[in-house]
Specification:
The chain is α/β, with parallel strands linked by helices. It is built from eleven helices and eight strands. An eight-stranded mixed sheet has the order 3-2-1-4-5-6-7-8, sandwiched between helices. The longest helix has 20 residues. Bound molecules: 1,4-dihydronicotinamide adenine dinucleotide (NAI).
């Protein structure tokens, strides 16, 4: 067991996930340094944090004193050298291998040799990202779910070269955040998305084959299996373009035919039927949050 203690956490990229991750660490007493690519993006990240914690206050989940303390623990920078004292840095920049590798390589020369470098990637190879470090054993996947402040589950991803102490320490850190970590190997989709998207894709194939109506497929899983939403309604919520990209990436990496995107999915994406966000997917909507109308 390693002796690492963590006090300063770096978060690179303060978009949807990074801002949420920064909030989670600050809420649990860690000092956080958030790094973005320019001042405008810093301001967006800061506004995201303000908005999210305002909502927590309104819902009675956070006092205004605690909100002030939480926000006071987060500092912002556009220069990555601000991360020199960080013990643990998680990157949550765009899902691009090149961008993530360049961040890891930059961080490698800034943080101490003991610091852990974590990636929040959903579908890229953590192993490939780790090759950008001179110490790939310190790189680990820490896959938060969206929204990070709410979702209690985190997948901690080990590569074949992740040092056992790094894995143990990353898992212990996730537990300190009040979240439940699970550990898995490095494959696109990890545990949850591998299983979920295989299932969603199967539902699409069933619909495409005219085996049952969309309503009956969804009802079977809601009423028969107790799922909160049916698979086709869930796909409309995720966005058919996003679902297609995730399936395609998993299929290209794992060659598991469960993940070969059902052809109709691509056709619907090409036709602009992306789900709720465009008003039409498997169902038709009046607006992004409206109930089904057709
Ligand atoms: P996003 O597009 O909302 O945020 C990405 C942020 O990275 C942007 O604010 C951008 O300005 C910043 N960025 C880009 N290059 C940078 C650089 N060189 N230095 C500093 N910041 C930089 O993306 P999102 O959705 O937050 O996703 C981030 C990561 O988290 C991706 O790897 C994604 O696959 C993963 N993820 C996303 C989930 C989701 O539901 N959105 C869920 C779990 C993981």
């Amino acid at each position: 067991m390693s002796e690492r203690t963590f006090s300063t956490i770096g978060v690179v990229g303060l978009g949807t996930m990074g801002a949420g991750i920064a909030e989670v660490f600050a809420r649990n007493g860690f000092n956080v340094v958030g790094v973005e690519q320019n001042d405008e993006a810093v301001e967006r990240g800061r506004a995201h944090l303000q908005h999210s914690t305002d909502r927590a206050v309104k819902r009675g989940k956070l006092s205004t004193d605690d909100q002030d303390a939480l926000l006071g623990r987060i500092s912002f920078a556009t220069d990555p050298t601000a991360l020199k004292d960080a013990d643990f840095v998680v990157e949550a920049v765009v899902e691009s291998l090149d961008v993530k590798k360049s961040i890891v390589s930059t961080l490698d020369d800034i943080v101490s040799p003991d610091a852990i470098l974590a990636t929040n990637t959903s579908s890229l190879s953590v192993t490939e990202i780790s090759t950008a470090s001179k110490h790939p054993g310190r790189v680990v996947g820490v896959h938060f779910f969206n929204p990070a402040p709410v979702q209690a589950f985190v997948e901690v991803v080990r590569t074949v070269v992740t040092e056992p102490e790094v894995l143990d320490d990353a898992r212990a850190l996730v537990e300190k955040l009040g979240k439940s970590p699970v550990v898995c190997g490095d494959r696109a989709g990890f545990i949850a998305n591998t299983l979920l998207f295989g299932y969603l894709n199967h539902a699409v194939a069933m619909f495409e084959g005219h085996y049952a109506t969309r309503e009956d497929i969804d009802a079977a899983m809601r009423l028969g299996c107790g799922y909160p939403m049916g698979p086709l309604a869930l796909l409309d919520l995720i966005g058919l373009d996003t679902a297609y990209e995730i399936l395609d990436t998993m299929y290209r990496q794992g060659r598991d035919r469960l993940h070969a995107p059902a052809p109709i999915l691509k056709q619907m994406v090409t036709a602009g039927m992306l789900g709720r966000k465009t008003g039409r997917g498997f169902y038709t909507y009046e607006g992004p949050d409206s109930p089904v109308v057709v």
